[in-house]
Amino acid sequence: MRKHLAVLLIFASQAGFATTFKPVSVKIQIKESQGIIEGVVERIEFLDGEDGRIETKVVIFTNKWIGVTPQEESYTEVFYPGGRIGDKEYKVQGAPKLNVGENVVLFTRTHNKKNYIQNLGLGKFSIKKYGNKKIMVNQIFPSYPNVGQMGLKQFYGLAEWVKKEKFKERFKDKFEVEQERKAVMSKRKNLATRSIASVIPEESNKKSVVWLILVLGLLGIVSQFLRKKE
Description:
The chain folds into 2 domains: 7-171, CATH 2.40.50.140; 172-230. It is elongated. Helices cover 33% and strands 37% of the residues. It is α+β, with helices and mostly antiparallel strands. 23% of the residues are buried. It has 3 helices and 13 strands, in the order ββαββββββββββαβα. A hairpin with an 8-residue loop joins β4 (54-66) and β5. It has helices spanning 26-32, 152-163, 174-229; strands at residues 7-13, 16-21, 35-48, 54-66, 75-81, 83-85, 88-92, 103-111, 114-117, 124-130, 133-138, 149-151, 168-169. The chain starts with 6 loop residues before the first strand and ends with a helix. The strands form 2 sheets. Strands 3-4-5-9-8 form a 5-stranded mixed beta barrel.
């Protein structure tokens, strides 16, 4: 048994698998994977596998990759066990859950010339936006530091250091580059607007306090004058 075995199959039958996971660091998953893919889920299909069990094929519009070779127009096919065709269903607990349009990072291994998601759901990360940063969040252990969460830029650097090679990137045409530039500029503009809006009330409050002090001061002077006159 491998020291860092991530997926322990404890029960198997024709109906499916029961799966138990143990936390494995992102660094170890990088080291043990044959391929890494970052991209957007384009299409999901269910197929009859070679052993008679159903498997799922996911087509990824690939932005960055290491250790795999995308097909024409940067599409990569990845597979995992489980799925449903008509009335026939094959369930695998802990299998990856992907949605069309989702931006993901996947760890893969090759079997029979096909790319399979490594360690089922443990090898699948969703990319989330938190402010100006992009964070990878794991399906199985979303709250574990260094296991289920990592900044995307930090991950790129770590993966290239472990694999001793650079990520290859999909060529982006001028239209895509311009759209991304507009999105970034729009976000900066919104942040600037929010900052100005948050400053204005503070300045107004300061002015109100100054006027209140002046009025109270004048009232005090008038009160003292009236007392002396009496």
